[in-house]
Amino acid sequence: MSRTVRIIMNGVTGRMGRNQHLVRSILAIRQQGGVTLPDGTAVTPEPVLVGRSSEKLQVLARSHGIQRWTTSLDEALSDPQAPIYFDAQITAARAAALERAIAAGKHVYCEKPVASDLATALHLARLARERGVANGVVQDKLFLPGIRKLQRLMDSGFFGRVLSVQLQFGYWVFEGDWQPAQRPSWNYRREQGGGIVLDMFCHWQYVLENLFGRIRSLVCLAATHIPQRYDEGGHPYECTAEDAAYAILQLDQGVVAHIISSWTVRVRRDDLLQIQVDGTHGTAVAGLRECYIQHRSFTPRAVWNPDVPKDHDYYADWFPVPDNETFENAFKVQWEMFLRHALGGAPYRWDFLEGARGLQVVEAAYASWRDRRWVDLPELTL
To answer: What are the structural domains, with CATH classification, of the chain?
Structure first.
């Protein structure tokens, strides 16, 4: 048995929503013949595009053979054949639209963060539970090849006892004067939901907690290293949001995590995201796709002698973790899981409460930065 299900997709005219969620996820699932639910039903998603610009929506729909689009969210939510609402708008606009979708009885799935603050995220989680609708938040990095390989190493006991995690993320975002910026100007305006803490610490929360244990406390220092940038029209503006953040986090079992997130750093490492996990029995260094390991049985004796030229190739001491499986697009993998959950009742972990935990870390980081102190993170409940 097979059927088609309409999915309301709001905010997919932007880069992330268009490329990762519409083209590489929903349209890719449609092209493969849909997704199979636990009862054997094949469900093919049919997107309904929603946005503010009719011109952008029309161009996007025409280029991908999409039949339905509208600038009216109420019109889309009134469609009884569209049981799922997805939101990839800017952060500041997300919570209000999600609340309307929940009130309309739609299952809801959204980009992170769920909202701009923890209280609103918990409010949305309660509403979704009370209304009895499936709810989920994008946690795409868990499904990246490099992170999947780290999870495999954790499951095998490779590390022994994990001691520390070092996570470095970032790249140089041009200021926009002599080269166009690679990120939208709202990312640097706090009043519009900008800031690297809000943008990235939700990611680091679910990566750390799914792999290594709950975050119990943290200390964070952030900075606006570049106070003036140029917007999409070439006009200068003052940055009101931070462009870099430096944090130390204490996890379960005494694990210490050190995180550097920056849009003001030039890359000299293997990848834009690099995670090093040190354990008593071995170490792994993972990027977006690759992962390299060094077991204690073949760890070389490092000799500190700055008076002679370096004659050892430290990179040669590391071995790649094999793929051993086919890795699909991380966003597509999670979309398939959510569709099976919302339409077929399959288990699903990453609901709005999980999304709220990301905002708990964000708010703790901002409080630490503001007050110059360590901040504890209590358990979250509804």
So the answer is: 2-140+330-351 (3.40.50.720), 145-325 (3.30.360.10)
